[in-house]
Amino acid sequence: MTGTSTRPDRDGDPPPRPPGVPEIPAQPGPTPAGEPRDAVPPGAGPSDGAAAGEARPDRAQYAVCAFLAVLGALVLVDAGRIGQALNAADPIGPKPVPMLLGALLLVVAAVYAVDVYRGGTGEPEGGEDVDLSSPIDWRTVLLLIAAFVVNAVLIEPLGWVISGALLFWGSAFALGNRHHVRNLVIAVALSLITFYAFAIGLGVNLPAGVLQGIL
Q1: In this predicted model, what pLDDT tens digit does every residue of 143-199 receive, in sequence order?
Q2: Do the beta carbons of residue 166 and residue 151 sit within 8 Å?
Q3: How far apart are the first and last CA of the chain?
Q4: Closest Cα to residue 185, out of 197, 173, 168, 171?
Q5: 39 vs 29, 33, 43, 50, CA distance in Å?
Q6: In this structure, is the dihedral angle defined by the CA atoms of residues 196, 197, 198 and 203, taken in order, positive or negative?
Q7: Rounded distance, CA 7 to CA 179, Å?
Q8: Which of 9, 31, 32, 145 is 20 to 30 A distant from 58 in Cα terms?
Q9: 187: which residues sit within 8 A by CB, 6+ positions away?
C-alpha cells in the first residue's frame, strides 16, 4: 500500500503537504524578553491610546494654590500698614522684606496653578512602613487640632506651663499613647524646660498666667 510519508527527511525539513490540504496559519508566539508590548489593544486607534495616557488635572491642588494666593495677599496688605522707620542702622526699613515675600507667594501660587492645569502631579512619597493607600485617620487629626486650640485659648489665663503641659499631654494621647500619668509628668517637665529656656536663653517671657510670682 502506497501512501504519503509524514515523517521529516533526514535533513530535518518537513515533508511536502499533500495537495488539497490547507496550511495552518502561523500563531503569534510569546513576546521576547526586552521587547516592548503594544499598549494599544487590537482594533483601537492611536487616538484611544493617547487619550488614555493624558493626565487629568488634580482639582484638589487648586485649594493649595488658593491658600498660597490668599496668604500672599494678606502678607502684602499687612506689609502695607508698616510705617517707614528708617535710620542709619537700617536704611531699608522693615517694609520691603514682607512685600517681597507676599509677591513671591503670589508668583508661586500662579505658577503652581498653571502646572496643575497642565496635568502636573507630585509623586507620592514612598515609605517602608507606610501604606499609601490607607485613608486619613481623621480622629487623630481632629484630636491634635483640639490640643492646639486648647493651648491657644488657655495660654493667656493659665500660662504656658499649664497650657503647654496640656498641649504635650493631648498630643501624646491623640497619637495613641495611653500612659497617662507618665505622659503628664513628661509634659509638665517639657513645659517648664521650654518656659525657662525662652526666659533665660532667649530673653522672651512666656505668659505665666496663674503661676505669676511662683515661676
Answers
A1: 999 999 999 999 999 999 999 999 999 999 999 998 999 999 999 999 999 999 988
A2: yes
A3: 120
A4: 168
A5: 17, 16, 12, 10
A6: positive
A7: 84
A8: 145
A9: 164, 165, 166, 167, 168, 169, 172
How many CA atoms are closer than 13 Å to the CA of 9, on its beta-carbon side? 5
Give me the residue label for grid cell 496635568.
Answer: 119
Cell numbers found for residue 101: 515675600
Q: Which one, of 162, 164, 168, lies nearest residue 182 by Cα? A: 168
Measured CA to CA, the distance from residue 161 to residue 194 in angstroms comes to 9
| Separation between Cα atoms, residue 154 and residue 163, nearest integer Å | 6
Residue 133 DSSP one-character state: T
Residue 56, C-alpha cell as written in the block: 487629568
Are 207 and 159 in contact by the 8 Å Cβ rule? The answer is yes
Residue indicated by cell numbers 502636573: 120
* pTM, entire model: 0.45
DSSP state, residue 201? I
User: Could you count the other beta carbons within 10 Å of the beta carbon of residue 170?
Assistant: 20
Cell of 211: 503661676
* Whole-number Å distance between alpha carbons of 138 and 172: 16
For residue 89, the one-letter residue type is A
Per-residue pLDDT tens for 73-100?
999 888 888 776 656 666 666 777 888 8
